[in-house]
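To the structural biology subgroup,

Please find below the input and predicted structure for DUF1097 domain-containing protein, which we are adding to the shared reference set this quarter. The sequence is reproduced verbatim from the submission form. If anyone notices a discrepancy with their own records, reply to this email rather than editing the shared folder directly, so we keep one authoritative version.
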Amino acid sequence: MTDSTATAAPGPLAGLGIVLIVVVAVIAWAIIGTALFSDLTLFGGFLLLWHWANLEALEIKRLPATIAGALVGIGLAWQVVYLTGKMGSNGMILGLLIMVAAIYLQVIAVLPFLFNAAAMLFLTVAAAPLIQLKIDFAELALATVVGGLFFGVFVEAIKRIAAKFMPAAG
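Predicted structure (tokenized):
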């Protein structure tokens, strides 16, 4: 089954250009991100880029909801760890109930700015035991926001530059 709304794949030369732009963006974020954040939290910016590019088609108007959802997902993963540490198994149960309530809000599309696919992606990744045991959640949240803003500015700059060199549609 094919999606009739999908855009055509770029040709080989355009595809190479896109890959080169992606490489520049990744290297730039790796340099900037490692200067600001630990290696463990740097993935937040990359994960946000992946979501924004693949599910939101790099639409700048979708970036705020993507960042907000990512922060909700990180917060949901954090609260389970926090409540478990403070209240033991009762805290874990409460944290999991909060998580289930958030998933329900996403399923029924209540407050989609906050409870969206980005929230569920970041919840899934940040709630993984290997991540939970090693991550500084506040730094992950900050790295995600800064990475999202970096990639948003980068992509919009590339779009504007490309528009200057593209022939007008007509």
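Summary notes: The chain has a mean pLDDT of 91. Residues 47-53+63-159 form one domain.

Regards,
Lab coordination
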